[in-house]
Amino acid sequence: MNYDRYRFSGGERIMYLSAGAGLTALISWTFYKSLIAFFILLIPMEILFFSYTKRNLIEKRKYELSLGFREAIMAVQSSLNAGYSVENAFIEAGRVMDSMYGDSPIRNEFKVLTRRLRSNETLEKILLELSFRSGIEDIEDFANVFAAAKRSGGDFTRIIRKAAETIGDKMDVRRDIRTAISSKRYENRVMEAVPFGIILYLNITSREFLSPLYHNITGCVIMTVCLALYAAGFIIAEKIISEAEKV
Hints:
Layout: H1 10-31, H2 35-81, H3 86-100, H4 105-118, H5 123-134, H6 137-152, H7 156-205, H8 207-210, H9 217-245
Helix pairs in contact: 1-2, 2-3, 2-7, 3-4, 4-5, 5-6, 6-7, 7-9
């Protein structure tokens, strides 16, 4: 599995197509009150909505893999302390992941790792391939250090213990950052909904106030400029939050 790609299931396609169509209907009614606008915006909005959703799902899956990898390395360390060989320690960690997690990225990866180890593939090759497919810095660092230690005959127990501590410290910092940012993300979601709420309120309470902005060229141009400014603000806010979460 390449973690920089995401393939939607049939159910997900239907769900996100419906959500994209609903969002398009909301935008076309709010800014244009036009069925024609809905059909003009539908395809571009669906493409953008799918792209945005796919990016978020990829980031979520990578974050889940990072958390699981931390737990897996700690399980490997425990097995090494109990006297297992390196390969058997990873196989035993796979059993732990199987009992701890349901259908999760780390469980699936360790099932593949166990099967390949039993087919006499080298552990360093498997880990390097995982690091390449995942694109996650912590896994890449661990795989490279592990491969170098394997070639030079290093102390695997010490290396894995140090890796577990380092990854754990990084994940703790990232978790704190995500917790702090989650409130800002919620505030951003509220701010994103405010323009729609204001326009809806005015359409209900003071319909004649906004009527000049609909069903004429001048109003259409003004609303299009407002929509473009709103989209720019949305993109900037999402990028700032997304970059902050990657720290």
